[in-house]
Amino acid sequence: MLKKKFVVFTFFILLLLALLTYQGVKGESRFIDFPLYPLKMLEQGGNAVLTGIKNVFGSYFRIVGKEEENRKLLLKINRLEEEKNKLVEAQLENVRLRSLLQLSSERSDYVTSAEVFARDSTNWFQILWVNKGKHDGIKKNMVAVTALGPVGRVHKVLDGKANIILLTDVNSSIAVTLQTSRAQGILDGRGDRKCYLKYISKDVEVPPGEVVVTSGLEGIYPPGLVVGSVENVDKNEEEVFQLIEVAPSQDFNRLEEVTILKR
């Protein structure tokens, strides 16, 4: 039985070889396609797999290429943004420096201009440090100002730096005048961004927005500098004077340069 199966299998192989030889001589025929159909299906399946693999790798390399392109574009955008920021900073600095230059040319009591490089770390004390000191002619109780008005007075002076007590510090007191009524009082810092104007009689009408200027009577600040404006008025019946809240004319937290004036 085994021998018979072997003979049949051998005959089938020989027949297949004969058909292949005939196809090579005569060309394709529908009859010969039938025994070759499994081989053709296998070939087509292999081609499909190879095509799919090629497509996958092609997509991968395209994605990798896009990622690299996006990375380069992002770096370029960041570089342009940095250059823009530098340009904006330079323009703003030029505006501030022009204001200081104009201020120095207008005042005969000008000493020097300085940059703010440090601030007191507490909220209660309002003190900043500038990069000029004794070597630049700065002395204690000289006044620091900007084009917007007074900043404070020099408190401690070292060779190359000095600190300034701001108007808003609790240890700061300035003689001031209400610009319209000409009533005079003392402006005290309250340890935050505001000040209190004291010793103004209740008989004086003080509307919100009233401008407050230095009077110069304490002998430190020159007269006529705009300190700020009235923000709130409290006429307590139990008090002799009004308690007036004043908002400074500038934001001391944003100061970068100041001008120092002699007394």
Task: Compile the SSE list and pairings.
Blueprint: H1 2-26, H2 30-106, E1 110-119, E2 127-130, E3 143-146, E4 149-157, E5 162-166, E6 173-178, E7 184-189, E8 195-201, E9 211-214, E10 226-234, E11 241-248, E12 257-261
Antiparallel strand pairs: 1-2, 1-12, 2-5, 3-4, 3-12, 4-5, 6-7, 6-9, 7-8, 8-11, 9-10, 10-11
State the assembly state of the protein chains: single chain
Low-confidence stretches: 28-32
* Strand coverage percent: 25-35%
Helix-strand pattern:
HHEEEEEEEEEEEE
Question: How helix-rich are the residues, as a percent range?
Answer: 25-40%
Largest sheet: 6 strands, antiparallel, barrel
* Structural class computed from helices and strand pairing: alpha+beta
Alpha-carbon distance between the two ends = 130 Å
- Which shape, going by the Cα principal axes? elongated
Total count of helical runs of at least 4 residues: 2
How many domains in all? 3
Strand order of the largest sheet: 1-2-5-4-3-12
Overall mean pLDDT stands at 78
What's the total count of β strands? 12
Radius of gyration: 44 Å
